[in-house]
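lol ok so funny story. i was supposed to be doing the assay writeup but got distracted and ended up predicting the structure for this chain instead. priorities right. anyway since i did it might as well share w the group, maybe its usefull for someone
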Amino acid sequence: MFKKIAYFTLALAFVPLALGWVSVPVQASVEIGEAAPNFTATDIHGNNFNLEDHKGKIVVLEWTNHLCPFVKKHYDTSNMQNTQKTATDNGVVWVSIVSSAEGNQGYVSAEEALTIEEKAGTHATARILDASGEIGKLYAAKTTPHMFVISAEGNVAYAGAIDSNPSPSPDAVEGATNLVLAALDDLSAGRIVKVPRTAPYGCSVKY
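and the output, tada:
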């Protein structure tokens, strides 16, 4: 079972893009309860990944950019790795996606991505480089991190932030509600996700 955690509605303030990060208002991107858009890609290990092949399992999509301070917040504290491990240990498929375009912040080659993955000690099932932005735009991914949880039936069950504290400070991880684990806990118990959509926060995706 996933760790039991408290639930509450997340409210976030808008922050100018000029500051290098953004808190996006809760609005339609992919629809909660609707079928998750399918995609096929090759991960950094050369393995083919097709979302529809994983029906019957819960899937988490994580948009990431290793240079973003909000991503660093969660990786430097091992919060993201611990969340990944909790999920994958419970049979969840975890996919990390980099949608930074070539020449933009966060763009990496497959070789560089392998080094980043090894150094961070990630527990993702697959890491996909989406330099064209095709997958990111399919999901209207807006920030790094931006999280999507897909039910075993293949429907979008959660979309939004990784947790309830939008501060870039690593200290903000402690005491924050992990919204992804909350969604996974609901799904694993056969419940509808109590908080299915929140405002994602972080750096804008560098399409």
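The first strand starts at residue 22 and ends at 23. Strands lie at 22-23, 40-42, 48-50, 59-63, 93-98, 126-129, 143-144, 146-150, 156-160, 201-204.
back to the writeup now i swear
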